Amino acid sequence: MKAYTEMTKEELQTEFDQLQAEYRKFQAMQLSLNMARGKPCKEQLDLSMGMMDILNSSSDLCCEDGTDCRNYGVLDGIWECKVLMGAMMENDPENIIVYGNSSLNVMYDTVARAWSHGIMGNTPWCKLPEVKWLCPVPGYDRHFGITEYFGIKMIPVPMSPTGPDMDMVEKLVAEDESIKGIWCVPKYSNPQGYSYSDETVRRFARLKPAAKDFRIFWDNAYGVHHLYDDHQDNLIEILAECQRAGNPDMVYKFASTSKITFPGSGIAALATSANNLKDIKEQLKHQTIGHDKVNQLRHVRYFKNLDGIKAHMRKQADIIRPKFECVEDTFETELGGLGIGTWTKPNGGYFISFDSLPGCAREIVDKAKKAGVTLTGAGATWPYHRDPQDSNIRIAPTYPPLDDLKIAAKLFTVCVKMVSAEHLLQLDATKEK
Amino acid sequence: MKAYTEMTKEELQTEFDQLQAEYRKFQAMQLSLNMARGKPCKEQLDLSMGMMDILNSSSDLCCEDGTDCRNYGVLDGIWECKVLMGAMMENDPENIIVYGNSSLNVMYDTVARAWSHGIMGNTPWCKLPEVKWLCPVPGYDRHFGITEYFGIKMIPVPMSPTGPDMDMVEKLVAEDESIKGIWCVPKYSNPQGYSYSDETVRRFARLKPAAKDFRIFWDNAYGVHHLYDDHQDNLIEILAECQRAGNPDMVYKFASTSKITFPGSGIAALATSANNLKDIKEQLKHQTIGHDKVNQLRHVRYFKNLDGIKAHMRKQADIIRPKFECVEDTFETELGGLGIGTWTKPNGGYFISFDSLPGCAREIVDKAKKAGVTLTGAGATWPYHRDPQDSNIRIAPTYPPLDDLKIAAKLFTVCVKMVSAEHLLQLDATKEK
Predict the structure, then answer these.
(1) Is pLDDT of B392 > 80?
(2) What confidence tens digit (pLDDT) does each residue in B64-116 have?
(3) Nearest beta carbon to residue A265 from set B117, B145, B292
């Protein structure tokens, strides 16, 4: 098919009319589908049901060191869970704190603590005239939500397939002492599914920030979330690289089992340097007596070790890989060569990122909504929900059943084509005036 | 036996020598016992093991409203858990947020949020020159730990068997806008086991604080923790009373199942007004996607309703009542009439409060430690660990086995007598000079 940009006004109009008819057929189907959030589907959750049997009333709920997991104590997590999470995160168990059910919560707390008390003796951020933050874009809306809530000024940094624009990152953090952090999803990034190149990781570890309390918030949310056996992204481990580069305290690394077992009923962890751990525990001891050790034990007994997690994630991949492929194939078939959109083809993670013609994203999402398919709000992938190009849309293929997803993906392409054709017709009309 | 204060110097010295010999016998036993923290004992934890069977791989983990507890979502807790916690807290489910595993964590977060963002549109506390707090004493060390961590100036308020000195509370909160809160354990208080009288609760609900963002932190930690069937303390419900008094937003009420099922693996909840709930959820939505719903469901399915909790708590009481009675009997037998100490006899909760002669508490705790019995540090029940009288010691009888407790309680009385005798001898010596 001809690219839309090469069509005459008449051809575009004909195309638009056909699309509108097709769109109305979708509307008549009265769909109610959701591709908005990175949620596992029912079959993925079913994979972990065995975890509900692993502890029962006959189980010994004591750790290897004799700690009774049913009682108070153990602020930073039971040892065997540090070992498990450490193996998953490629860090030593000594560098791990095991938390409760949500790594987002750990990130929030980490910002909140810096806000009220400061990092390692530095001025609490609440006492500073301004705090700024680097936000690779497009990025994760809930990251941006935390920094926005604290009134931290967010500066967008463009993403590329190898990671954030490191020239810009290096320059900004070196120049501006009020820049205190950067949000990173280094592996299978949200929403593009990009993984940082070795050079990017090396440059991160060698940043020379003006602020002593600048920290990289390294959200390794998709560390073991590969879609393929034969195409897997692997990164240089950031804590070790920071250590080698003489910047041992510059990074907080986060992970959780939310998209491994049950979101909301999993365990989260932080990996960081000994100095940072000491600083954090000083707060943590006032905040809680300890997190849910029975659930930590449940995860350890269920997975046993990293091999157990990997085997489990292969089953997860088998369920969601066809969904990613369905979306990618539908996009290729319906939009390939039309010049009205680009999309990513990640090797893992939870999202596909779609870029429409500038000025079309909001309307595409709106059109899909009106035909019963909910997408992540346009703009959500940018700080303050402001996508200056109005072009990025996050696609979350995991939750809907495959049959529904096929329909939703097709409808999405119809919306993209319809909005793009209309947009180009309007541009033509503007030119004629 | 004669009161120590009525003994001659010679009688006291003889007594002291005998006690020292007795103390050495205890030391020779090489004990290692712990009466420091309010921890349930193994038998109490065993009571809840049935909870480990209530969910298994065949269970339907969906709520009554169809929500799959295994997936993301439901910020403020599943409905049936709000009903259960509401019943336990004597509040409507509409007024409840169900949290994670720790009410201490919820209290910390509540202070932290007021610190960074302010309460209901008021100035964030971090922007104020000074924030003050009322602390009924003796009180709970971890409460004081939170306010101390935020640099909040703590003002001690004397406790009586009917609650805090309300004349003082009323006067201070009315006069001083920088007073933003008060820590309360209204039922079976920590450490005295006192319960607030109806008049005290009514006066709390009718406070006229100068600060609009003054809040009562009502930690109902021992709401269902009765020791006896026939002697139970019951309080006027504070949210309803605040509502009646025209102060609906003045209280945050906290509770958890930590000392009902498994500490660290239970669920916590907050009850408060609709306005406060709205204010809190605005923060909560940035902090987390939701707490552990599977664990919420586990608790609901296990207890079913308030009757289930009450039946369970009766079994708990059967285990720990003899421990309270053992300590009280030992104190009565060994210290009764000596005029060197007073102690409380609570109807519930987790502690007995002991007051020694002024200036003796630290040394008593130290002596007990040197004979292998760990007590809560002297001073811990006061803000900044500063007990001006050096007289209060918190006794936590639940954790040690009864046989150990008998020995520990007896040793404690030996330490009290020895330190008191020595103290009185020194006073005599000082007088002679």
Answers:
(1) yes
(2) 999 999 999 999 999 999 999 999 999 999 999 999 999 999 999 999 999 99
(3) B292
Closest to B156 measured CA to CA, from B333, B322, B315, B387: B387
Question: Buried b / exposed e across A294-311, counting CB within 10 Å, b at 16+?
Answer: bbbbbbbebbeebeebee
| Cα distance between residue A156 and residue A387, in whole Å | 10
Say if the Cβ atoms of B52 and A56 lie within 8 Å: yes
For the record, the structure tokens of A76 come out as 């930073």
Residue A66 CB partners (closer than 8 Å, separation 6+):
none
Closest CA to B270 of B286, B253, B258, B256: B253
Looking at residue A1, its pLDDT comes to: 76
Q: Write out residues 295-354 of A within 8 Å (CB-CB) of B.
A: 295
Does this model's pTM top 0.95? My answer is: yes
Structure tokens at B420: 């008191």
Amino acid at B34: N
* DSSP code per residue over B323-353: HHHHHHHHHHHHHTTSSSEEE---SBSS-EE
Give per-residue pLDDT as tens, A318-376. Answer: 999 999 999 999 999 999 999 999 999 999 999 999 999 999 999 999 999 999 999 99
Amino acid found at A417: K
CA distance A160 to A397: 22
ipTM above 0.95, yes or no: yes
Q: Judge contact between B84 and B305, C-beta under 8 A.
A: yes
DSSP-assigned beta bridge partners for residue B349: none
Please give the Cα distance from A184 to A189 (Å, whole number): 8
DSSP alpha helices (H): ranges in B226-353? 238-244, 274-287, 293-303, 306-335
Chain A, 247 to 276: residues with Cβ < 8 Å from chain B are 258, 262-265
State whether residue A115 is helix, strand or coil.
Answer: helix
